[in-house]
């Protein structure tokens, strides 16, 4: 049985002010292409379908188009909600859609939803577990003590009496970790409880395949068969070196599984470039890759540049982020924050002197001092006082 696993679509997401909707349509076309080529029995969508609980009109339209195209293929769709989704909104019309082999599991109601498919080796039970939190399931399992995310997951799994001698697949959107291993994290993930949401992957190791969503970099968690598909698009510059993909898992007899990653290509890539403005905007450098890519530009010029963003966008229209790295910005941040603590005790003139020194790396000339004094209305030759109150 072949399973196509994707996650963290974040339909409707905006990255640094740029809408990702065209990128999303573009990768969904590739997903449909893979389905036509590989003919999987099921498509697993492991949460964070939308970027927001109340998605915009265009986002709803894109998801509607994607689901409609999936329904035209001979494939079962198994979808759960993630922490970004509204469970109830995502469940809209789900009972009607299940007749179309589209199973939307938005909210966890205390019982693990199971969909069974059959192949030449027998049955495969798909367990659909939407994103859960300890607080959201506590009252469903009043007899148990549910403190951690691990407790919540264990309770949810035990709500179905799973026969692990049969083949089982879990679809889940949680933060799974393996003791002693550091997961690859991205800035575009929302991590509301700072790691306290981590669940030990051992809890789900008896499943034949665990299709995960939540972490945006494709990765396994301790085992080859416990896997994050990753987001189909780079949603932050922390992901710019990643290769985006969907995972294709092939289940054979109990215990037999192969997973391959099918690459996804963006309309515009996300990348970083670093150097001096004149060099970066030269034809020689700019023509080496697609100028339309989403860029983070790090300018290393020492001299002041007027309207650097305007100049960059003249060559690269989709510059998202502009940063500077030169002798001025490389001043130890520790010193700056220490200085800011005593800022309250400095006179405006001294404060400006320090600021000038920090941004320019030099001290003011006599002429510059005179200008600042004039602006601050300090008479020439007057003694600086330590405390201005
Ligand atoms: Mn996500």
Category from helices, strands and their pairing: alpha/beta
Query: What's the story with the biggest beta sheet?
Result: 6 strands, mixed
Strand tally, please?
Answer: 19
Mean pLDDT: 90
Give the end-to-end Cα distance, rounded to a whole number of Å: 75 Å
Proportion of residues in β-strands: 15-25%
Number of helices: 12
Shape descriptor reads elongated
Unique ligands = manganese (II) ion
Radius of gyration: 27 Å
Low-confidence segments? 384-389
The largest sheet has its strands arranged as 6-5-4-1-15-16
Notes on the structure:
The chain is of the alpha/beta class. Helices cover 27% and strands 24% of the residues. It contains 12 helices and 19 strands. Strands 6-5-4-1-15-16 form a 6-stranded mixed beta sheet. Strands 7-8-9-12-14-13 form a 6-stranded mixed beta sheet, with no helix packed on it. Helix 9 links the parallel strand 18 and strand 19. Helix 1 runs parallel beside helix 2. The termini are far apart. The C terminus is likely disordered. Bound molecules: manganese (II) ion. The site of manganese (II) ion has 7 residues, from loops.
Give the key terms:
disordered C terminus; 389 residues; 12 helices; 24% strand; 6-stranded mixed sheet; alpha/beta; elongated; binds manganese (II) ion
Describe the SSE topology.
Layout: E1 2-6, E2 14-15, E3 18-19, H1 21-38, E4 42-46, H2 57-72, E5 76-80, H3 87-90, H4 94-98, E6 102-105, E7 113-119, E8 122-129, H5 134-137, H6 149-158, E9 167-172, E10 175-177, E11 198-200, E12 209-212, E13 219-221, E14 223-228, E15 245-251, E16 257-263, E17 270-275, H7 277-280, H8 283-286, E18 294-299, H9 308-315, E19 319-324, H10 333-342, H11 348-360, H12 366-375
Parallel strand pairs: 1-4, 4-5, 5-6, 8-9, 9-12, 10-11, 12-14, 17-18, 18-19
Antiparallel strand pairs: 1-15, 2-3, 7-8, 13-14, 15-16
Helix pairs in contact: 1-2
The structure holds manganese (II) ion.
